Each structure stands twice: as C-alpha cells, then as structure tokens.
Amino acid sequence: MDIPEVVTVGDARKGLSQILAELSAAGPEAEPVLIGAHRKPQGVLLSVEAFEALVEKRERRLAVESATASVAAEGLRTSGAADRDADAWVRGEISGEEMVARAIARHRGQENRRAG
C-alpha cells in the first residue's frame, strides 16, 4: 500500500466534513486519511467499515493465537493444513463454518486411512 499524502491538522479541521463524507461514501474501499504536521503522520481517519474490518481481523488473529496456544499447552501441534486454513479465516477468505468443515474432512480422511 502506498502511503497517502499527509493532511495538515489545519486542513483537516477546515475540511473535516468533506473528509468524513468521502470516507462514508467510499465505505470499506476508502483510502485512509493521514493527518499530521510537517509531513509526518500523527493520526489516521478510516471509514467505519474499514475500522470494523480491522477490528474483526484482529479478533480472528487473537482467537487463532489462543487456540494454537491451547493446543501447544497439551503438547500437540497443529498441522500445516490447519495453519493454512486458520490464516485464510483470519484474512476473511473462508468462513468459520468452512474452516470447521475442512478440519472435519481431514479428520475423517485420517480415520479412513487408519481403518483401511
């Protein structure tokens, strides 16, 4: 991602209504607006949708870290396929239901190989 131009505090103050309207109109596709002094970013404005997406991604990442730590505490480790699915879920590429379905399919495949 290219770092956008930094809007000065004074310009942000003068144009806040316009900046907010543009963020709202663009929704999740809105580019962040950096605000600062002397071309140095000190803060950022995001659309609500972009902020919510960041929060959701963080919560997913923390959930995966917690689950992985629980598995490790039992002396076990996750498989590469499970790690890849968890990463895809954190990025929002698959749903939680899809991640569970894949885990069940892998488990059933292991059971079938043992029985066969």
TrEMBL record:
Any Pfam family hit: VbhA
Organism: Streptomyces millisiae
CDD domains: VbhA_like
Occurrences of domain Antitoxin VbhA (ranges): 60-106
Family: Belongs to the phD/YefM antitoxin family.
UniProt protein name: Type II toxin-antitoxin system Phd/YefM family antitoxin
Superkingdom per UniProt: Bacteria
Signal peptide: none
